[in-house]
Specification:
CATH superfamily: Cytochrome c-like domain
Number of domains: 1
CATH class: Mainly Alpha
Order of helices and strands: EEHEEHHHH
Number of strands: 4
């Protein structure tokens, strides 16, 4: 039988699990790192204080939001990869070992330029650098954002 009845494991990542007493016991119960964390404040009726409860709720909300944002960003980059192919960008550029090395290798472009500057470049390369050989592509704003997200992911 589990002697930790009333305790809740909160998995932070693969290497760290926080443990919290969810039974609403006495002042001084701990949270985090196998129950060896800081004492939880309690409310008059016992149990974790409202700050702890709200903090855990906020943490859960932020984690869900971060996961949704990461998924959305990943989907945007995947669409950008399709735009890269559809527009024939491989005809001049390389990413990894694929493409034609006429223009810049874009394998690590995301390490040098952020998504916003890449989007500005894609909208009008000559406006960013008047001597640019890259033509102005006929891309929708959605395609520009997707392609910029894909290029920004190349690190």
């Amino acid at each position: 039988m589990d002697d930790r009845v009333g305790w809740v494991d909160i998995v932070v990542n693969e290497a760290e699990t926080m443990v919290m007493d969810a039974t609403g016991g006495a002042e001084g119960q701990t949270m985090g790192h196998g129950g060896r964390g800081r004492p939880l404040p309690t409310m008059a009726g016992g149990g974790p204080g409202m700050g702890v409860i709200l903090g855990l709720g906020l943490m859960a909300t932020l984690l869900v939001g971060a996961c949704a944002s990461a998924q959305e960003s990943s989907q945007q980059a995947a669409r950008g990869r399709e735009v890269f192919r559809e527009q024939g960008c491989y005809g001049c550029h390389t990413i990894g070992k694929i493409g034609t090395p006429i223009a810049s290798d874009l394998s690590r472009i995301g390490a040098r330029h952020d998504e916003a500057s890449l989007a500005a470049w894609l909208r009008n390369p000559a406006l960013q650098r008047p001597t640019a050989h890259m033509p102005k592509l006929q891309l929708s704003e959605t395609e520009v954002r997707a392609l910029a997200a894909y290029l920004a992911s190349q690190r």
